[in-house]
């Protein structure tokens, strides 16, 4: 089995490569983040570059960390059609623990449409 750039399936299994966007993350970036970078609302976008410590030996790595034009920071999590319960729990735990430092958003692509989930 080989990895297809852009996160497409090659064979029966999806190969995850840390620091490389899958197809949903790339599409989200192109549709929602990149246009905001172009007009200056987002001054910095980092992909899987931060780890938030939730507890001893338990961390959460958000998909995107954005620095907005006003200096505030936003964490964005991107999900496909299937969401594992552990991922949801970690996201909500991080939002509760770090909600005063960062704005949190989670988005899901299901049946070709983007929807904001878990505020």
Your description of this structure?
- The chain is α+β, with helices and mostly antiparallel strands.
- The chain has a domain at 41-117: Trna Endonuclease, Chain: A, domain 1.
- The protein has helices at residues 23-38, 85-98, and strands spanning 42-47, 52-55, 58-60, 64-68, 73-79, 103-110, 113-117.
- The strands form two sheets. It has a five-stranded mixed sheet with strand order 1-4-5-6-7, covered by helices on one side.
- The longest helix is centred in the first third of the chain and has 16 residues, at 23-38.
SSE layout:
Blueprint: H1 23-38, E1 42-47, E2 52-55, E3 58-60, E4 64-68, E5 73-79, H2 85-98, E6 103-110, E7 113-117
Parallel strand pairs: 5-6
Antiparallel strand pairs: 1-4, 2-3, 4-5, 6-7
Which key features would you list for this structure?
32% strand; alpha+beta; 2 helices; 119 residues; single chain; 5-stranded mixed beta sheet
CATH level 1 class label of the domain at 41-117:
Alpha Beta
Topology as H/E string?
HEEEEEHEE
Percentage of residues in strands: 25-35%
Give the overall average pLDDT. 88
Number of helices, where a helix is a run of at least 4 consecutive DSSP H or I residues: 2
Q: Describe the strand arrangement of the main beta sheet, using strand numbers.
A: 1-4-5-6-7
